[in-house]
Here is the input.
Amino acid sequence: MAGLAEARAAHLVEAGDQALTVSELTAQVRALLEGAPGLRDFWVTGEISNFKHHTSGHLYFTLKDEGATLRCVIFRSRAVLLPFRPSNGLKVLLRGQIGVFERDGSYQCYGQDMAPAGLGALHLAFEQLKERLGAEGLFRPDLKRPLPRLPGRVALVTSPTGAALRDMVRVAGRRCPSVQLILVPTLVQGGEAPAAIVRGLALAGQVGCEVVILARGGGSLEELWAFNDEAVASAIRACPLPVVTGVGHETDFTIADFAADLRAPTPSGAAELVVPDREALVAELAGLAAAARQAVRGQLRRGREQLAALAGRGPLSRPAAAFAAQRTRLGQQAGRLVAAAGGRVVARRAQWHSAAGRLEALSPLGVLSRGFAVCRRPDGSIVRQPAQAPLGSAVEVLLREGRLLARVEGHGPGLG
Here is the structure.
């Protein structure tokens, strides 16, 4: 037994000399896993669970199936390129490589790209953006603006070389050549197209037009993807003019269609909706003119009928007798007015004579005519008391006829 113990101790000493640290062992495992050709670039499928979108922008989640789980991370630089939003329960295809997270002693998949399994990533991204913008109220019916009935200028935000422009010009020329079309050229496909469309919509609101058509011809979902951009949808709502979309074919729907004030199935259809039909307008005006003439004729006919009815009864049926009776009544009223006026004149004249008599009795001239005189000082004031005319002062004596200039030489008592 002692020999066995000694042998075991010697073995442990030898093993200790050769033992790896945890870091060294993990490094070897990492080198094996990361160096394996099949683990450096692969696709793996599974269902997302434990999903977390970190504030740093990194995506952390677990891929699982019935028998195993795989820890995964997609760093922000790659996550921003994903055309959809991952979520728990979504089955996906993940492209990545295996790496070892040495601190936890675990391996994980570092994702480079990801797409929904069984459902196109673009279609999923479309549905997710549509749902989110709808919840934010961007597509509310009460935000839709009516189109002008008779626009004079229409802005066309589209590619200057596409078939959509030719189709719209043709339709507008056929319907109403007097409507001016203002081209606002823009990219309609590719990574730079959304920003170009946003600029085009902003410019369209500044060129003196009354309505905007945003259009492009048909294409695949990828080719139409610029019209599924959130910035484009926001620019449509921010445009000061009503916006009509005509993107793709009748079966194609984009986020821009939901944000627009009106969606047309094609660019030609958009021109049909915006540009009025001249022939239809002429026909409508002719109908209105005919209705107006008919209304005037009806009013004239009813007026003649009413006049004829009035002429057949009352004074209008015997105009000479009615005029004679009217003249008699006017003569009687004039006589009464003259009699009343004469009586008033006589009464007024008597009142005037009475007032004149009273005024004559009160007049200073009447007093003078009876032999009295009025004594005045040089300033025109009447002398009523001797004190008002001191000795030696000059006075004026008014008589019935003429006046005397005198000087006071003495004072005496009054008549009383």
User: Anything to note?
Assistant: The two ends are 184 Å apart (CA to CA). The chain has a mean pLDDT of 85. Residues 319-362 form the longest helix (44 residues). Residues 213 and 244 are 5 Å apart (CA to CA).
